Known about the structure:
Oligomer: homodimer
Radius of gyration of chain A: 20 Å
Largest interface: A-B, 49 and 49 residues
Strand order of the largest sheet of chain A: 3-2-1-4-5
Distance between the termini of chain A: 34 Å
Structural class of chain A: alpha/beta
Amino acid sequence: MFDAKKFVEESLTEIRRIVGDNKVISACSGGVDSTTTTVLVHKAIGDKLLAVFIDDGLRREGEPEFVVRTLKNLNIRTNYVDAKAGFFNVFKGKTDAEEKRKAFRDKFYKTLGEVAKEEQIEFIAQGTIKADVIETVQGIKSQHNVLEQIGIDPKIYGYKILEPLRDLFKPDVRKVARELGLAEEISERMPFPGPALSLRVLGEVTPEKVAIVRKATEIVEEETNKLGTFQNFAVLHNDKATGIKNGKRVYGHIITVRIVDSTDAVTAKARQVPYEVLTKISERITKEIPSVVRCLYDITDKPPSTIEFE
Amino acid sequence: MFDAKKFVEESLTEIRRIVGDNKVISACSGGVDSTTTTVLVHKAIGDKLLAVFIDDGLRREGEPEFVVRTLKNLNIRTNYVDAKAGFFNVFKGKTDAEEKRKAFRDKFYKTLGEVAKEEQIEFIAQGTIKADVIETVQGIKSQHNVLEQIGIDPKIYGYKILEPLRDLFKPDVRKVARELGLAEEISERMPFPGPALSLRVLGEVTPEKVAIVRKATEIVEEETNKLGTFQNFAVLHNDKATGIKNGKRVYGHIITVRIVDSTDAVTAKARQVPYEVLTKISERITKEIPSVVRCLYDITDKPPSTIEFE
Lengths: 310, 310
């Protein structure tokens, strides 16, 4: 049985020992992993920690404001870094899923490295958890926050890595979050991938396509958050399809809705969402996003699918 | 109230009057429209009619054999034309939906024109029905069998057009089919588009992609024909997505399942298929077609979607 209280105590000692008199930067996306890491490190070393929210332009509606507000309310020193233009720039012309992930990761660490250098900071704290390590080792996907596993030397970006949650699975991370007194809206937060909406735009990632999937995501969340599933989101296809808008034939976008149950993200089941909910989602998305003509619902479990499309 | 008996009687007179001593060719795809047309014309002029089945390589599993057998059992003179290679050739490099439709249509009429010329035939009988005419006029899609509507002069292909069903909607076509004594497996047949599986392969149409969607279609039909819906089929996306096969991350194909209720194809509702059926379809498709990692279910009505994707 995992003992969250004991884990926190031991982690505080360990973090203080490793960091010493140095300063730490923590890249906080607002997810349960990175927020718990940030709060844990803050508890250990106080104002020697600087939290950074990198706005990559790929976050959900209202998310940047929410994360910055949350961190400030916890009295954690926080920098908001507007890196939107730079991120969209690295996606230009890239359509391959793995190439996009790599472009994101590289840009992410470069941006973070720049902040670390400016602030003369030695360590980067990251919310890596056990599933990330396992999946990367098995070659399921290259998580952007598991540098050593994929042969990236953090030193080339100019810092050392601190990963206090790397031996925990998600349910234990949530226990640690509760132990640290984090609000439920953080501790029970749905997983959200590091590369964010870039994974949910098939093909090239552009500001226009991200805006479409962001709006679709908002609608899916409004209609299904009450179902209490593990993850619920929207994906924008690169393929287009025919539809009819205002009595005219058009060639428009396709959105897939993905809603899964899972405990650890290692396996997952497609939720059997009541059709009246799906119909409402389809009607809202095709009405509120005029360029979308078609909504699909993902009926595949993991395996053989993954939860995300990329 | 539509009187099928009277319609048949008047049509026989009219067909005989128009055709005179000439010969007629009828392109029969096996669908209710073209088969009813073929049988009606055969009843009018007997062996002056030659039925032709053009195998474009885009038909469902077992379909070419079924159509040729059906026509021969009705004692209709029938030619099987193997045009598979030629059709795949015209699809090379074409990814736009309308461009693909046009390529199909042009190849179709050229092939038919060649047969007509060989056989020294003056007229081509076609299964055009009212919905085709209306949709083409409204610009919803360019049906491949409504030449005049789209400004194509049939004479450039070398023949005149005979369209005995052009004023009927689908339910009345079925009544005519029953009046003509056609078997239920024809008269109650689900609609199937002229360009066949080429509409159900997004992006470039290749023999490999058609083979995948053909197999997926077979699985969808086996699992859902008993539901008695208006149409039930599979679509192969051009987009790919990540999945896990044999414990390894792979980048594989996506199939969408589309099942709709409709009376006339002008509007349609996505069927609320029981989840146990969808789960079985998803399991079978991802297992029996190893390159497919993900199955989606189309939850959109027409409008704003169309029934087909292209």
